[in-house]
Specification:
The chain has 75 residues and is α+β, with helices and mostly antiparallel strands. It folds into two domains: 43 residues, no CATH class; 30 residues, no CATH class. The protein contains two helices and two strands; from the N terminus they run αββα. It has a two-stranded antiparallel ribbon with strand order 1-2. The longest helix has 16 residues. The model has no long low-confidence stretch (mean pLDDT 77).
Length: 75
């Protein structure tokens, strides 16, 4: 995160921390290192949507998003 934050001005990037989320499938809570990321960054536990795709190991999360998309197509 520090690398992105420090490089953003020269790359013309703006980081919106409120819209930023961090998700990793092997997170267990006991390997959390405080101060690694800003506190306002979202940390979803079930999964995330990335470029219209699903990143998750949770079957319910994947099925829920799939059903939501399917219902939009049918209507």
């Amino acid at each position: 995160m520090d690398t992105i934050w420090e490089s953003r001005p020269e790359l013309g990037l703006e980081v919106n921390i409120v819209k930023t989320q961090i998700f990793w499938t092997s997170y267990h809570g006991n390997n959390h290192r405080g101060g690694l990321f800003p506190l306002d960054i979202g940390r979803p536990t079930l999964g995330v949507q990335l470029l219209k795709g699903v990143v998750s190991r949770d079957r319910g999360f994947i099925e829920g998003l799939t059903m939501k998309r399917a219902s939009k197509v049918v209507m």
